[in-house]
Amino acid sequence: MEILNSFFNWIMSKRITQIQEFMDNPHEVQENIFDYLIGMARHTEWGKKYGYSDISSYEQFKERVPVSSYEQFFPYIERMMHGEQQLLWPTKVKWFAKSSGTTNARSKFIPVTDESLEECHFKGGKDLVSLYVNKKPDTKLFAGKTIGIGGTYQKNELNPKMYYGDVSAIIMKNLPIWAEYMRAPGIEVALMDNWEEKIEKMARLTTEEDITNISGVPTWTIVLLERILEITGKDNIAEVWPNIELFSHGAVAFDPYRETFKKLIPKEDMNYLEIYNASEGFFGMQDTDKPNEMLLMLDYGVFYEFIPSSEFDKEYPNTIGLADVKVGENYAVVISTNAGLWRYKIGDTIRFTSTSPYRFKISGRTKHFINAFGEEVIVENAEEALTEACKVSGAEVVNFTVAPVYLETGKKGGHQWLIEFEKLPDNKELFRNTLDETLRKINSDYDAKRAHDLALVMLEVVELPKNTFYDWMKRRGKLGGQHKVPRLSNNREYVEDILLMLSESRTPTP
């Protein structure tokens, strides 16, 4: 394995020159991506409709092609799932990434082409390792095996020659043979559709392996690691896998789980790297020691545009290109890709921390916020406040969600936090006060509404029993994969459903 480790380290280090190229020349690289995408799609049905054959500039592109949501693309995608081709992209499409998001219960089916697999998703995985190897040339990452906690896939009922599933499952299914050799357990277990059975088998089959790295969603990874400790009777994961050195994570903010992972894996040399990998593409990864900050990957067959926050609610929002973004401002991400998505709003918002090179933080979702009283609280605010509250009170959190408590006659509104704790706060009042004070400090709109209890009263923290969120996600058929608990909602749909479930569980059976 040592020879293999040295070989892979050398291979991965060769990509660094290309990464440096788009860091040094971001606009030229994005212009090339734009020309490539327009040229490839000019003879598709979409390309003919919007005159791609004579589009020669970004301004022309903006004038002709509308910014679209999934609903606008759905008629094309539905036809593609029945077997039609040459609609959004010229090469054959047989895979669709199934994504329900966190704000809509209905599934979305995102086309996945060979180009998007090779030039985006696979490239992202290789680049993550390349950057890591460049930073840590003495790594033993390839001397052991990796665990990837993915989803599942199935045949498309509309056309048996096509498939859909979690993007993680699609990636695993299409990886080269050598990648399968590096994985534990085998793909037949990794892609099992019964989540609880899969976790049990993964836990039992990997305890004797030499695992050096894990990738996955923090919340689901904790479930696996805790089950491994239950099976082995060990105190921590470092006793099970002494050579573990890397956890690459995404989908949810890591800060609320950082202390939990430090206890699960108490190694000084353990490394954590954040990635931004969605059903629509692989967009960013952490390339420095700064947590929560990622490098925007510009040569993955994705052309980027951004909607300023002042345009979020407009039916025809104005977009800006990469050259016009400013550090510190909130933008919704719009993408055109080698999977045939055109000026597509993916629903995520980001905030740039640097423009040389382009680095950013994920700030939330365009439909994932609370603004019931003009407070404009976004996911980033909530996660930052929760992290601080945990820090000062010694608490550890499993999961949480927040919703408004609406105004009633004679009562003022507020926010209700439903939190499942791994470790309770040493002082619950300190936890609640810190949560509120931090929100007031980082969000002036929230602070203004809280002043003298003008529109918002002190927030409420509801402590949930252990496994509440797991049971709720199971009830909704959303265990594992890239499914995640919605952090914020401007209505009480999720909160009321959770409270109803708890109420039903406490009601004695006649």
What does the model show?
The chain has 510 residues and is of the alpha/beta class. It is built from 19 helices and 19 strands. Helix 15 (379-393) packs antiparallel against helix 16 and helix 16 packs across helix 17. The protein is globular, with a radius of gyration of 23 Å. Residues 101-105 have low confidence and may be disordered.
| Helical coverage, percent range | 25-40%
Number of strands: 19
Helices, by number, come to 19
Unreliably modeled segments: 101-105
> Mind telling me the C-alpha Rg?
23 Å
Strand order of the largest sheet: 3-6-7-8-9-10-14-13-12-11
Strand residue content:
15-25%
Which term fits the overall shape?
globular
CATH topology of the domain at 116-278: Rossmann fold
What is the CATH C level class of the domain at 116-278, in words?
A: Alpha Beta
Could you tell me how far the N terminus lies from the C terminus, measured between alpha carbons in angstroms? 61 Å
What structural class do the secondary elements suggest? alpha/beta
Give the rounded overall mean pLDDT.
89
CATH architecture of the domain at 116-278: 3-Layer(aba) Sandwich
Q: Summarize the main sheet.
A: 10 strands, mixed
